[in-house]
Amino acid sequence: MRRPVVAGQFYRGDPEGLRSQLKSCFDVSVLKEDAKGAVVPHAGYVYSGQVAAHVYAALPSAETYIIIGPNHRGIGSAVALSQETWSTPLGEVEVDKEIVDALFANIEVDEMAHQYEHSIEVQLPFLQYRFKDFKIVPICMGLQDENTAREVSIDLANALRGRDVIVLASSDFTHYEPDKVAREKDHLVIEAILKLDTSKFYSRIYERRISVCGYGPIAVMLETTKALGAEKGKLLKYATSGDVTGDKSSVVGYAAIAII
User: Fold this and answer.
1) Residue 169: C-alpha distances to residues 12, 40, 76, 181 (Å)
2) Over the stretch 173-187, which tens digit does the pLDDT of each residue have?
3) Amino acid 31: pLDDT
4) Cβ pair 238, 255 in contact under 8 A
5) Number of folded domains in the chain?
6) Residue 219 sits in a domain of what CATH number?
7) Does residue 8 belong to any structural domain of this protein?
8) I need a labelling partner for 37 at 20 to 30 A (CA). Which of 10, 131, 222, 235 fits?
9) Which of 56, 41, 38, 170 lies closest to 114, judged by CA?
10) In a domain, 10, yes or no
11) Of 218, 201, 223, 219, residue with least CA distance to 210
12) Which domain holds residue 24?
């Protein structure tokens, strides 16, 4: 059992309080999208919860949600699957063992890589609040270069064809720069994401030194959803932590993007 490690920190740790917190996050008006994938933030709900809710309010239900997040702590395998059941204050979520088994030949199962990582965990209460009877496939990426992302996306697309799935990339955008700078940099990479242009996405990150923490997961999601028929991205919401705190001197950027 993979038990929550940031309950009570990134989000409320009691079921009633968490449901109330999520309800306030979902106080948004969003049209449903026939999305094959999405980019969603993973900060504390007080900062990025409403941005994340723009994605989850727009998503259709699916049998399985593939959730790809960065490995902030650098523990475990370079790219790691989890096959344990995951728990949150709202209950337990099963892993789709068929998809994990299909990926196991090329992607290692390593629970240690997931043990303390928050980027996947914080997505689960949103899914639990919106949907019932779904499974997940958690993938944690410590190695995020373009070649690795393309290799993982090929394996993932092969395993997912013909299945009822949605691929989620868990990532925040620019970290700890002035609000104006963060918005300028982030919209450069968002433009590449909306065009599903992975090469331009990487080149802009490297050229402008843009601190997108989950750039590998975003690239895997883009390449996988393109292989599954996606044609474009749609920006649902962008905000920074400064919109919540009022401090614009040093912010983190958050984007909700549906891939259609």
Assistant:
1) 23, 6, 20, 23
2) 999 999 999 999 999
3) 87
4) yes
5) 1
6) 3.40.830.10
7) no
8) 10
9) 170
10) no
11) 201
12) 15-259
